[in-house]
Amino acid sequence: MFHRESGVFKTTYRADMALYPLPIAKWTVGVLALIFIVIVPLTVHEYYLSILNLIFIAIVGALGLNILVGYTGQISIGHAAFMSVGAYTAANLAVRLGLPFWITLPAGGMMAAVIGVIVGMPSLRIKGLYLAIATLAGQLIIEWTINHVPAISGGAQASIQVERPSLFGVSFNTQGHLYFFLLFFAVLAIVATLNLVRSRIGRAFVAVRDQDIAAEIIGIDIYRYKLMAFAISSFYAGVCGVLYTYYFGIANYEQFQLIVSIDYLAMIIIGGLGSVLGSILGAVFVTLLPIVIRILMENIGSLFFTGAEMANVISGLRLGVFGGLIIFFLIVEPEGLNRLWRNIRSYFRVWPFSY
Amino acid sequence: MSEDLGFLFALLLNGVSIGLMYSLIALGFVLVYKATDAINFAQGEFVMLAGLIVAMMLSFEGMPLAVAVIVTLAVMIGFGFGLERVVLRPLLGRPVVAVIMATIGLAAVLRGLGPVIFGSETRAVSLPIGDEPIVLGPASLPPIQVAGAVVAIAFFLAFSWFFKKSRMGVAMRAVADNQQVAQAMGINVERYFALAWAMAGVVSALGGIVWGSMLGVDVHLALVGLKVFPVVILGGLDSIGGALVGGLIIGIVESLAAGYLDPYVGGGTKDFAPYVLMILVLMIRPYGIFGKRKIERV
């Protein structure tokens, strides 16, 4: 049926937690699947496919961070470090042992999860500010270790070249092929997260976030769930790092510096903390923003800056605009783009009547 | 043997002077945390901003140093007030995590737009103190480190007087201790919040001048701010004396690590050892040496 309900008519918890809240949701998913599997790859130019590919990778990472920060309320400034752990694990396995992606990808994720749990250990004793500082230290220590241990980083420039993934003899070495490869994992991550947050584990995460003491009293093992959140979040980050590695064909620590952690924090704050759709919107927004800034600056900015300055100006503006948006959304709309989307939707849900 | 001791002495001396300069920056962080319970992840970017301003002022022909310093101080005070008003006040009463993320955003803004506005090349801040190293027995120190250490000590003396004796300082301690009671006693709490940020601006201005003339001013100056965290965690987040002691310890640890470990691992332990120490402190004694034992353990 092609209609939405005009109010909230759910009477059971089961209905409230269903994966498809309404019959129309199945149709929406079907249409989206048609668009993304058939229409987009046939019609869209290679350059735009490459942007979509970056968005898919970012979605995986943003979902992971949102599970930790948005759902469980544990702040982490070390997300990029977990990505680098996944990336270098997969790169080493792929190059030294010649393993295919369907082994290196989960292996990278698992390794990141293990490291994530170790870095998350302090969260058992401390929270808030102290945890932020501990994860910051984790980021800097991991960055330093990868950079200074040639056994991990492959020596020169701390980067490892990796072959593109292949399956049944087909190598994913064009943007079009990579599109399907990355789309598969982005969808997998989205569905997994949707199911996670409506399960017992997801509800326990939210309970820990909202009132940790109350959560403990109603029988939630806080330590277990906090560490689990770190593990799951880092697993996503590790997979995200592996995807970056396969996408660029190289594992390089410069892609996983502190600034990338801030990019991902920006994604989930701008998109909306504690929401799957928010992670997706944030990933799209934050990936597109630098491209828009670059196009704008190339057209308008050339009036003010010379060509040599331009690269610096663009990267500076990009960072500055991210920071400004983080502050803006925190002050004005803490629930992010997701909330704006919901406002628009609920306006049209009862349109043309205002209530 | 005496050569080894001389090496150790040189490392310790270097560590102490660098440590004092770290504690100068950490002081800005502690002041804000003590008075307003807000965590400033942009402390390093404050320092960078001050460095950029003073470098720009000095680049004008015939600009006396005193004028440049005064202008920098004025701008940083104004920046502190404005920041409190625009960013921090709307976030009052929101979770700690929101304030942390807002200051991370602020750090990104300053680090991104600083080079766009002031230019991205590395500038020198030359102070009229020469660069002939000062020799002390087997060790020698660049004069800028000595100047930095002297400025840091002067500031610590000034702030301990301020908090112990002056009316404003006592009011600020009252605000830090209990906001509601302070308000009931007729203290304008919001004004003192703004004052704390302005004081962080003053400290950062001095830090920017000292560190800027040592390292040169560009975006990388902000990285000094990352060293603030080991210092304040070690000393205790809300303790001014802790900032001093923490700075000294981190400075010495860093210097010793660079002197004794670098030859074995190929350099860079300076940027590594402080964080390992910090993680250990977080695990064993998260409130630091002098901090209040107000950690929530859940």
Tell me about this structure:
The complex is a heterodimer of chains A (355) and B (298). Chain A is mostly helical. Chain A has a single domain, classed as ABC transporter involved in vitamin B12 uptake, BtuC (Orthogonal Bundle), CATH 1.10.3470. Chain A has 15 helices and four strands. Chain A has helices at 13-17, 23-43, 46-71, 79-96, 101-120, 129-148, 150-153, 175-197, 200-210, 212-217, 222-248, 258-271, 276-299, 307-332, 336-349; strands at 159-161, 166-167, 170-171, 250-252. In chain A, the strands form two sheets. Chain A has a two-stranded antiparallel ribbon with strand order 1-4. A two-stranded antiparallel sheet of chain A has the order 2-3. In chain A, a hairpin with a 2-residue loop joins strand 2 and strand 3. The model of chain A has no long low-confidence stretch (mean pLDDT 82). Chain B is mainly alpha-helical. Chain B has one domain (2-120, 141-284): ABC transporter involved in vitamin B12 uptake, BtuC (Orthogonal Bundle), CATH 1.10.3470. Chain B has twelve helices and two strands. Chain B has helices at 2-36, 43-59, 65-88, 96-118, 143-165, 167-177, 179-184, 189-215, 228-235, 240-260, 262-265, 273-284, and strands at residues 134-136, 139-141. A two-stranded antiparallel sheet of chain B has the order 1-2. Chain B is globular, with a radius of gyration of 19 Å. Classes of the chains: A mainly alpha (355), B mainly alpha (298). Chains A and B meet through helix 6, helix 10, helix 12 and helix 14 of A and helix 4, helix 9 and helix 12 of B.
